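Thread: "does anyone have the structure for this chain?"

Original post by V.I.:
We have the sequence but no experimental structure in hand. Need at least a predicted one for the grant figures.
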Amino acid sequence: MTTTQRAVLIRAYGGAAEVAEITRPLAGQGQVLVRVRAAGVNGIDWKVRDGLVQQAFPLQLPAVLGIELAGVVEAVGPGASRFRVGDRVMGPLGGLGAYADFVAVDEANLVRTPHGLDDVHAAAIPVAAVAAWQSLHHAGPIAAGQRILIHGAAGGLGGYAVQYAKQVGAEVFATASAAHLDHVRSLGADHVIDYRAQRFESVARDIDLVLDYVGGEVLDRSWQVLKKEGAIVGTSSPDILARTPPGRRGLWFMNKPDADLLERLAAEIAEGTLISKLGEVVGFADIPAAIERNRTDPRIGKVVADFSR
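Reply from O.Q.:
Generated one for you, tokens below.
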């Protein structure tokens, strides 16, 4: 039996991601070994690669990148009982390592892939769908009639967040590039702002919650539109606490695996209740280039690597 496999890894912070051969893992206690068929490519990949989130994601280098996958159970480890060999599964790793042909995953992080969802579409869901839900509710209960501003609304996280905010009856302000405005409107946003042509401060007022999936100076400017008692939840600036003015609420968010929530959201997507938009589908060898494109040219929806390509 072959004991090695393909993987996309980094050898040092700031270095390029590369395709390499590594040792194939075994399923440990409470784990299943998944033959990966597809994996989501996320904005966090290039930030991990470049060493921008070392505190949140400390790595033992070299390290395999990738945080979510869809595939088939190849083997069941000791103590694991939820799945059988041959089951189609999807889920987050709760860490890194999804860009490999075989991955040992804690079975508690996985759910069965719903009928009607192929592996490529399934791989776009585990992190973005759950993280968007969790980040929306991270600052406290979200009530109907509240005003929510979402930065990066056309991306994987932002697209789900717009839909969730509308489900609870919020008034949604959303920023996106000109090419993506119609897509964001189709998700239900009430006010869509072309961030290159118009400053969001001229449109958004008295905001209860900002979901910042962009970071940087966008985060810094967002305090101007936020109610005094409001909050900014950020996923892109790990230093958000240091950038939070005295007396204001700025919260750094990292998603946590939640199999029950993932199962519910995946079912809604399979049924068509939620829209899940693929931005680009690439082959395994193209993952390093796709990671870089996520940094320089973010697409609508999620980028997914199809391992059969």
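V.I.: this helps a lot. The helical segments are 43-49, 119-123, 126-137, 156-167, 181-186, 217-222, 259-271, 287-296.
O.Q.: and The longest strand covers residues 31-41.
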